[in-house]
TrEMBL record, chain A:
UniProt entry tagged with the keyword Phosphoprotein: yes
Annotated positions of the 4-aspartylphosphate modification: D74
Residue ranges of every copy of the Response regulatory domain listed in the record: 24-141
Taxonomic placement: Bacteria, Pseudomonadati, Pseudomonadota, Alphaproteobacteria, Rhodospirillales
Protein name as annotated: Response regulator
Keyword tags: Hydrolase, Phosphoprotein
Automatic annotation (TrEMBL), chain B:
Listed SUPFAM superfamilies: SpoIIaa-like (SSF52091)
Protein name: Anti-sigma factor antagonist
Superkingdom as given in the UniProt entry: Bacteria
Domain STAS: 1-101
Any one GO molecular-function label of the UniProt entry: anti-sigma factor antagonist activity
PROSITE patterns: STAS (PS50801)
Gene3D superfamilies recorded: STAS domain (3.30.750.24)
Organism: Azospirillum cavernae
Leader peptide range in chain numbering: none
Length: 403, 101
């Protein structure tokens, strides 16, 4: 049976379409004839930027000034041999991943192994086979190009993600404003807001609606990465356009946001959300929720779980939301958080879980009654580490005992 | 997450196993590929082998329901337990999904 011999390859190996015209090759050989021969081979594949060295010292000088992409070196270069030069170059971080092709007349396996140990990337047998030489040079240059391209791409993405993270961190209330607003309303609000390395969809904010009413909004846009971060920004925009009057009624706000988000989100995207309004005059918390993690409310009798069930925000256009009310007296505490807290995984791959969180809060209040929240988050960081897979929001909101 | 597809005459059962999270989006695409059935066909997710879903997993349920609606298929879920049941209740998905006993 005969196979069609369609050659995607050129004469000298696979053609990847990476131009080599801007690549620089340094040839180190004490024979003028060899230097010229090698340079001619390189021209065949379009490499024209070639520099030469005739001994070890020249090589070290040239490598600095010429900054080659590849080094062709004779193993018997005077006065120090190629292997020793290899070791010198590899000792410098700048040349650690420079492709070094070493030519040698001695071809025992032991010698070849020693060349690789010294840091040679590849070996060429002398006398040189032109076709093999050129194919290997091109392979190593192309590989280097791809690695450099990948590295540059990765650096760009990381830079973009860092920028996106700092923008996401800037969405939440400014610390100074928050402290002043909280104290005006006889509250203490301690926030922890951390984004994962990949950015995510957590978002929270708070509103001073009028004297005596403070709204707190916590949301987590589904998914991870840029898409959910963009959706968090969309939700933030919708909220900033909401007239203050519409912030008084949690269920009505969620119903409105749901309709607007349902219009712009794609199927399967949504937010879990909690919105509560603290009323100092009636000592109550009125809230509506959209499948958010159940908050904890602490009073003199200890902490209890609030029901934050509700239709996911933005998933179903006709979803309706209901208001719930619970007493919220001076000295009481409201603890809100995103699933990044309860679904974080420790070294044994175990999650904290809702019950684990309730236990931890109880311990925090007993062990560090003055500063339960920092204690709680310190224990969390000990067990789950600081690098997060998901965003994390945690808000400890306490009413002053004397207000 | 893993899944198995079992076909009967006019219905298809898809059993989901393990943990269904953000990282299962590609696997879930293969699950959705099994929705290539004639109109009126019944698709059932059996969740009894599922230990955990996160909010991305809930999103996948919603995509499955939407796909079924577009292809005029019946779609139901059953057998959710523990954490999975808790999350379905929290998100009130039982209000919009057909849940078989």
């Amino acid at each position: 049976m005969e196979f069609p011999t369609e050659t995607p390859a050129s004469l000298y190996g696979l053609e990847l379409g990476i131009p080599l015209g801007d690549r620089r090759v340094l040839i180190a050989d004490d024979s003028r004839f060899n230097r010229r021969t090698l340079a001619r081979f390189l021209q065949w594949i379009g490499i024209v930027q070639v520099a030469f060295a005739t001994n070890g010292q020249e090589l070290l000088d040239q490598v600095e000034s010429f900054d080659p992409d590849l080094l062709l070196i004779d193993a018997n270069l005077p006065p120090i041999d190629g292997m020793a030069l290899c070791r010198v170059l590899r000792g410098n971080p700048r040349w650690r991943d420079l492709p070094i092709l070493m030519q040698s007349t001695r071809q025992t396996d032991q010698i070849r192994s020693l060349c690789f140990q010294a840091g040679a990337t590849d070996l060429l047998a002398k006398p040189i086979n032109p076709g093999e030489c050129v194919a290997r040079v091109r392979y190593h240059l192309e590989r280097r190009s791809m690695v450099q391209e990948l590295r540059a791409f990765r650096e760009r993405v990381e830079r973009d993600l860092r920028q996106a993270r700092s923008m996401q961190l800037a969405l939440v209330p400014d610390a100074e404003w928050l402290e002043a607003m909280a104290s005006r309303n006889a509250l203490r609000i301690e926030p922890v807001f951390q984004t994962s390395d990949e950015v995510g969809g957590d978002f929270w904010t708070t509103f001073e609606i009028d004297g005596g009413h403070v709204g707190v909004f916590v949301a987590d846009l589904s998914g991870h990465g840029i898409a959910s971060a963009i959706n968090a920004f969309r939700l933030h925009t919708l909220l900033t356009r909401t007239p203050p009057d519409d912030l008084r009624d949690p269920a009505r706000l969620l119903t409105q946001l749901n309709q607007r988000l349902a219009d712009i989100l794609t199927v399967g995207q949504f937010a879990t959300a909690f919105y509560g309004v603290i009323d100092r005059h009636t000592d109550s918390l009125r809230y509506a929720a959209a499948g958010a993690p159940n908050p904890l409310l602490g009073s003199r009798g200890g902490f209890r779980v609030l029901d934050a069930s509700g239709m996911l925000l933005g998933a179903f256009a006709d979803a309706e939301y209901e208001n719930r009310s619970t007493p919220f007296h001076p000295g009481d505490t409201l603890f809100l958080y995103s699933d990044g807290l309860t679904e974080a995984r420790d070294r044994d791959d175990a999650m904290l879980g809702e019950e684990g969180l309730a236990d931890l809060i109880e311990q925090a209040v007993l062990t560090a009654p003055e500063h339960p929240f920092p204690w709680l988050m310190a224990r969390f960081a000990e067990r789950f580490g600081a690098g997060l897979y998901d965003d994390l929001t945690a808000l400890w909101i306490a009413r002053d005992a004397t207000s | 997450m893993d899944f198995t597809v079992t076909d009967a005459h006019d219905s298809t059962e898809i059993r989901l196993h393990g943990r269904m999270t953000f990282s299962d989006h590609d696997t879930f695409r293969s699950v959705i590929a099994a929705f290539e059935r004639p109109a009126g066909h019944r698709m059932v997710f059996d969740l009894s082998g599922l230990d955990f879903v996160d909010s991305s997993g809930l999103g996948m349920f919603i995509i499955a329901r939407d796909t079924a609606q577009k292809k005029k298929l019946d779609f139901a879920m059953r057998g959710a337990r523990d954490e999975v049941q808790r999350l379905i209740t929290l998100a009130k998905l039982h209000k919009v999904f057909t849940i078989d006993a």
